[in-house]
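Loading example: each entry is read as two labelled lines plus one structure line.
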Amino acid sequence: MSDTRRTAPLGIVIGALGSAQNAIFPAAAAGFSGGLGGAGLLVGLGVGLAVILIGSAFSYLGWRRTTYTTGETDIRVESGVLSRTARSVPYERIQDVSLEAKPLPRLLGLVAVKFETGAGGADDLALTYLTAAEGERLRQLVRERREDEAAAAATVSADPAAPARAAVDAGPETGQVLFAMGPVRLFTFGLFEFSLAVFAVVGGALQYVDNVTSIDVWNVDIWYRWLKQQGSTVATLGPYAQALAAAAGLAGLMVVGSATGVVRTFLRDWGYTLTRSARGFRRQRGMLTRTDVVMPAHRVQGLVIGTGLVRYRFGWHSLSFVSLAQDDKEQSHVVAPFASMAEITPIVAASGFRLPTETTQWQRASTRHRNDLAARDAAIFVLATIVAAIAAPAGLFLIPLGLAVLAVGANLYAWEFRRHAIDEAQVYASHGFLSPRQEIATRLKLHSVEIAQGPVARLRGYATVHLGLAGGSFAMRGVPLAEARRLRAQVLETITATDYSRLDAPPQSAPAPQALSAAQSGLSENFLAT
Amino acid sequence: MDQPPVPPQPDADDELTRVHPNYAHALRVQTALGSLPVLVAAAVIEIALRKLDLLPPGLIAGVVLLIVIALVIRIPQSRFNARGYQMGSDRLRVVRGLMFRSDTVVPFGRVQHIDVAQGPLERFFGIATLTLHTAGNHNASVSLPGLGEELARDMREDIRAHIRRETL
């Protein structure tokens, strides 16, 4: 019962009209270059007509060569004049059918039909243009197919997991507050958000002052005179006072930077609350512009636990959810921007993930990988050292030499944090220099596994394992090749067992409760120990 | 997991299936076409320098021509050799890359949709590119060029049938 059709012939008209639009500029250009007389007009018209003709011909050819087939199991579109593409979308994967009518197609009673899948965006299958009735028919058809399957699936998988899941969902019914930040916490947070952005603002303001007043702020002489004046005053004070003045200046900088951080944090995160309701995670924050975001729990693909250089020493971390949705400019949703591990633990548990425990078998990156990175980073400085030793005044070569030693040290230290692990349900990766960043993903919700090796990596027998995660990235670097293969086999075993269409349905055999509580007790020391 | 016993799954390097030999020819033509501008540029420089009479005639163009010929013979063949795939019962493994090797496995259970595409050159050589689209950000689409036209279609049907079976 497959049924092959063409798109609406009227679509050619839209293509032709589009080419008419394209013809305007070449025609005008040709017209002007041909002189403003009658000849120029004729040339312009000729060029314009030619462009329209060619465009229409392509539009026609494109139409002739585009067919779509609604088959037993999929929708297939074949298109392309020179390069042929046949795209097949199984009904099972179509999440929605959208009909879009821009003004011009609408006048002609046409719609663009888009079949949305998990791949999303530009990769989706689109048909331009169909008659509105045909578009509606396709949408209906897809719905019917989907319903047939849903019915079939319901009878097949009347699984025992379903009621259990309902119970899980019903559990945290009334928005339970998982995490909140009071003014004191916000203040602490703000201190760590040290920022000197205010000076950029002042710089901008100075430029503005420069424009509206006659004081020339960029004139060096004015400042020089002022500095000289101040400098002579300072010089009269003696060395102790000078040191004191410098310290005061630094302290002032610290105060300004911290104050900026505190103000910005208060504006952004005032009244921060994260609640768990039946619908998912709900985050409210903001003083002047209050935002309210809901993230469905089953959409969470992975977790990222980040921290900062200084705040890590004080035991502060941040937690983000990786999902396909975007948060402002961030790739993942921040759910706890500044929290202790003890506070993060319940949030992680509520999202159905587990933090690594003592029993998690962490694997370090290959030492060869570490050595290669250290050698690579030090090489440039060593080169500079050699050049300096030959050409520069004596002693100067010590600077690049010191930097080379630093580079090696930094790499050795960073290696301490580069680890990965896998257990029966999740994968873990941690990396970062001075401030470790930890990523957690569910094995089940991965989409592909890649083992990538550059020339050096091949020579030295390690690889990077890239895992396909929706809405984010997940990579384990410097994994010995044999282990990378083993990792891949394990992950694939989980992925292939469950089809994409079932991902959201049954909860992946919920982690055993006792394992969960064990996770809660032991993990924070473990994480801090990383 | 209550899946049927998994058939022996690909994971060793030695069992890769080669792509269609015509893929090497297609690559060769592509490389040759791509190096045309370089040849033309070399010829232009040669002619321009002819008047100055600095170098023995044909030195620049000759050397460039030799390099291009060497590249056209060597590179496509090694790129072809580096390519391989493995079609499992529930996954496709694609290996590629000369310097930067990449070895990707896409389970059919995560395939969103499937493309079979043919450029003009591929049509001439009777080969096609199979592209699997997944929902992950990394490897959002995994391409396997150089399959015989029929084979690419058959593989698409197999993968689709697998998706169908799994959802029912």
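The first helix of chain A runs from residue 10 to 33.
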